[in-house]
């Protein structure tokens, strides 16, 4: 849905219980996105597809990636135990809704980080899935340790361990501690939606000045293997989504063929804090 200025509108409702300061932080995150991209989060009236911001105990912070029919949950837990209401966290979850995946899951991430699987419980491996550039193009935006979409070094690691080591050691303590979205994060959003203005600049000029072409993403690696035709799960997270009844097979069938064709089971899978992964970036808001 676009307005007359060509901005993309995402209707939202805040159903969770938040105090005045928390609401202010949520609003400020939305305003930052509006200032820097062509996305506008607008209060929902009667739009069928919308984001619903919820605060439920024990649920943590998560959102689905991209647009789904009906209610799209953005879980922002806030209570005495934990709070997702920091501006960078709110922006992170809203970016999922807008279509961004995690930075450390990029196709080229192995050139920038080592994922230390020995320090991670196998049940959490899906959090470190590497996406093919076919599933999530990077729009030629360079890997960014400062991305608001990057986890920190201890994310999903065993106690006292680290799960990721940056190849450039000076960024080890930088990852996962953004104060704000990075300009590369905003560029990616602008590229996805073909925003004419990005970070208050003309998008085309921005492209030229940075010497990277955001308009023609080159999809390079990881063609689908021939073997995929025999219906496998191409994302490790498929079984977990299925167990949580979050697997939308209308959208995910090609990625989660095995899970989508298997009967529903009652397997219990541990619940990570951020269970974002869903649809393809390009399937949203077109
Ligand atoms: Zn996330």
Automatic annotation (TrEMBL):
What protein name applies here? Metalloendopeptidase
> Main EC class of this protein?
hydrolase
Its Enzyme Commission number(s) read: 3.4.24.-
Q: Which UniProt keywords apply?
A: Disulfide bond, Hydrolase, Metal-binding, Metalloprotease, Protease, Signal, Zinc
Provide the GO biological process annotations.
Answer: proteolysis
Q: Which residues form the PLAC domain?
A: 227-264
Binding-site residues for Zn(2+), renumbered to this chain: 92, 96, 102
Tell me one GO molecular function of this protein.
Answer: zinc ion binding
Q: Which cofactor does it need?
A: Zn(2+)
Recorded source organism is Caenorhabditis brenneri
Q: Which PANTHER family match?
A: DISCOIDIN, CUB, EGF, LAMININ , AND ZINC METALLOPROTEASE DOMAIN CONTAINING, ZINC METALLOPROTEINASE NAS-5
Quote the record's cofactor note: Binds 1 zinc ion per subunit.
| One Pfam family recorded for the sequence | Astacin
What residues make up the catalytic site? 93
Residue stretches making up the Peptidase M12A domain: 1-196
């Amino acid at each position: 849905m676009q307005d007359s200025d060509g901005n993309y509108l995402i209707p939202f409702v805040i159903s969770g219980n938040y105090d005045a300061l928390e609401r202010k932080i949520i609003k400020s995150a939305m305003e930052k996105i509006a200032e820097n991209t062509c996305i506008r989060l607008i209060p929902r009236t009667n739009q069928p597809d919308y984001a619903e911001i919820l605060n439920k105990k024990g649920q943590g912070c998560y959102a689905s990636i991209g647009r789904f029919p009906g209610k799209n949950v953005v879980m922002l837990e806030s209570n005495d135990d934990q709070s997702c209401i920091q501006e960078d966290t709110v922006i992170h979850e809203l970016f999922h809704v807008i279509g961004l995946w995690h930075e450390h899951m990029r196709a080229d991430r192995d050139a920038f980080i080592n994922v230390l699987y020995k320090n991670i419980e196998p049940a959490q491996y899906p959090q470190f899935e590497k996406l093919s550039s076919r599933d999530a193009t990077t729009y030629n935006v360079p890997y960014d340790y400062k991305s608001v979409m990057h986890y920190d070094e201890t994310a999903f690691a065993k106690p006292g361990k680290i799960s990721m080591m940056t190849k450039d050691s000076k960024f080890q303590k930088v990852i996962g501690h953004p104060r704000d979205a990075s300009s590369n994060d905003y560029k990616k959003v602008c590229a996805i939606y073909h925003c004419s203005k990005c970070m208050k600049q003309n998008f085309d000029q921005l492209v030229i000045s940075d010497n990277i072409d955001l308009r023609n993403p080159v999809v390079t690696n990881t063609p689908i293997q021939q073997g995929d035709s025999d219906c496998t799960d191409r994302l490790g997270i498929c079984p977990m989504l299925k167990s949580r009844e979050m697997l939308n097979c209308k959208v995910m069938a090609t990625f989660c063929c095995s899970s989508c064709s298997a009967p529903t089971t009652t397997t219990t899978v541990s619940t990570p804090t951020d269970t974002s992964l869903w649809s393809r970036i390009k399937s949203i808001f077109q």
